[in-house]
Amino acid sequence: MAIWLNKDSKVIVQGMTGATGMKHTKLMLADGTEVVGGVNPRKAGTSVDFDGTEVPVFGTVKEAIEKTGADVSVIFVPEKFTKDAVVEAIDAEIPLAVVITEGIAVHDTAAFWAYAGKKGNKTRIIGPNCPGIITPGQSNVGIIPGDITKPGRIGLVSKSGTLTYQMMYELRDIGFSTAVGIGGDPIIGTTHIDALAAFQADPDTDLIVMIGEIGGDAEERAAAFIKENVTKPVVGYVAGFTAPEGKTMGHAGAIVSGSSGTAQAKKEALEAAGVKVGKTPTETAGLAREILGG
């Protein structure tokens, strides 16, 4: 079992023929991901050879779905074209769109997020500015290294790409059901709460690791959700304890104003909901290990 992505997922790559898209399509294929097509209107009808695997290029997402049965799109389109790419994926009603692109204007993200809702939320959006989603041993969509962990029974949801990789590596001997990098922009599609609910419902996830960071109130809202709805053990880490007030740190959403959005406030909210919170990623991994008896 896994959440949102498994061995049967058929993946298309919007922006596959660009340098970044080419690089990561090759890596995704090497991880066993079933990449069934790329999308580029200017190169429709051609194909790209990835070490002996021919991947066709389609003119639109709709055509790619019709020809291949694709149910996941990963988007490597430059930021000024990303909104149109996501809207196209939503119009085609692809079930999952993973937006890797960073630097997207917040009003563009707000626009396609609202558009997805207007269309009935038939497309789950992960990102933008995220590393993607991996179900180890089954499928890998995005830029998460596929060789740093193995299949297991931990579910991971993280705002930070780098900390996603570190946590996967720290707990590589236990392994993961699915790891989701949701991104740290002020507006994102899939939230901590969405992932927590999915992992709670997944019979093969025994423990959830949640990584947050300063800024906003997503972690506080997740804590309230955990308290009411999650029965599985959750361990957490909040990045940014030393961040100075009023300074954006890394992600566009990581900004502290007064006591709102601080790492300490988030840590206290999570602990009040029964979440064990580590002071460092390594300590957090140790807490998970203790709970699982590893």
TrEMBL record:
GO terms for cellular component: cytosol; succinate-CoA ligase complex (ADP-forming). It catalyses: GTP + succinate + CoA = succinyl-CoA + GDP + phosphate; succinate + ATP + CoA = succinyl-CoA + ADP + phosphate. One of its GO terms (molecular function) is succinate-CoA ligase (ADP-forming) activity. Pathway: Carbohydrate metabolism; tricarboxylic acid cycle; succinate from succinyl-CoA (ligase route): step 1/1. The keyword Transferase does not apply. The keyword Hydrolase does not apply. Coiled coil: none annotated. CoA binds at residues 17-20, 43, 100-102. Residues 4-104 form the CoA-binding domain. It comes from the Bacteria. Keywords: Ligase, Nucleotide-binding, Tricarboxylic acid cycle. Gene3D superfamilies: NAD(P)-binding Rossmann-like Domain, Succinyl-CoA synthetase domains. The active site is at residue 251. It is an enzyme of class 6 (ligase). Belongs to the succinate/malate CoA ligase alpha subunit family. Succinyl-CoA synthetase functions in the citric acid cycle (TCA), coupling the hydrolysis of succinyl-CoA to the synthesis of either ATP or GTP and thus represents the only step of substrate-level phosphorylation in the TCA. The alpha subunit of the enzyme binds the substrates coenzyme A and phosphate, while succinate binding and nucleotide specificity is provided by the beta subunit. PANTHER family: SUCCINATE--COA LIGASE [ADP_GDP-FORMING] SUBUNIT ALPHA, MITOCHONDRIAL (PTHR11117:SF2), SUCCINYL-COA LIGASE SUBUNIT ALPHA (PTHR11117). This is Succinate--CoA ligase [ADP-forming] subunit alpha.
